[in-house]
Amino acid sequence: MSRLKTFAAVVLAATVPAMAQAADFNLTGGSGTTSTATFSSGGIGLNVTAWTDDGQESVTFSSGGLGVSTGFFDAPGVGNNESLRLTFSQAVNLSSLKVAEWDFTDRATLSWAGGSVNLAGAALDLNVLGTDTLNLSNVVGTVFKLQGTALVSTFRLNGLTAVAAVPEPSTYALMGLGLVGIAAVRRRRAR
């Protein structure tokens, strides 16, 4: 019986979720354009690509953050019907976005496989070099699309915070019960 208790204790210890570390991505700095921007933080990889209705475009880098470049006359940043696709190396809980040049005229939609949320600027931002943090909740996935929906303004994505998604405690508990059941059947057959 002591083996079964030891096994149950090990299973229980394995089912307690570890606290996941937040990965903070700083997307500012540099200048120029690229087809795919690659970042890494806290063991999580991130690839950023730029899109319009016409297809893939170039990602622009600046001190203000990332934007979409569709050509010479395009305003910097993410404008109407322009989007940044954020592809993580693993499932994450996206807890915040940091945006520059974000004010009352800015609108965007963040979408992922599990849903979407509309984001809107709330005040006049006279400090265009400042950063606003948009806090999110229950935004879990691997691929996210941040699309500008304002007709006459643009913004830049200059940071984000993501935490590796961990299974719900109930999933761990169910797995633990299954393992205990397998051990009990095995013990019974061994008699």
Q: Can you tell me about this structure?
A:
This protein has 191 residues and is α+β, with helices and mostly antiparallel strands. The chain folds into two domains: 1-17 and 167-191; 20-166, Jelly Rolls (Sandwich). The protein has two helices and twelve strands, in the order αββββββββββββα. Strands 1, 2, 3, 4, 5, 6, 7, 8, 9, 10, 11 and 12 form a twelve-stranded antiparallel β-sheet that branches. Helix 1 (2-15) packs antiparallel against helix 2. The protein is elongated and about 80 Å long.
Q: What is the CATH C level class of the largest domain, in words?
A: Mainly Beta
Which regions have little confidence, pLDDT < 50, spanning 5+ residues? none
Number of strands: 12
Give Rg in angstroms: 22 Å
The biggest sheet, with number of strands, parallel, antiparallel or mixed sense and barrel status, is: 12 strands, antiparallel
Q: Can you tell me the CATH topology of the largest domain? A: Jelly Rolls
Task: Please state the average pLDDT score.
Answer: 83
β-strand amount: over 45%
Helix content percent band? 10-25%
Order of helices and strands: HEEEEEEEEEEEEH
Secondary-structure-derived class: alpha+beta
How many domains, as an integer?
2
Q: How many DSSP H or I helices? A: 2
Q: What's the shape?
A: elongated
- In terms of quaternary structure, what is this? single chain
Straight-line N-to-C gap: 12 Å
CATH architecture of the largest domain: Sandwich
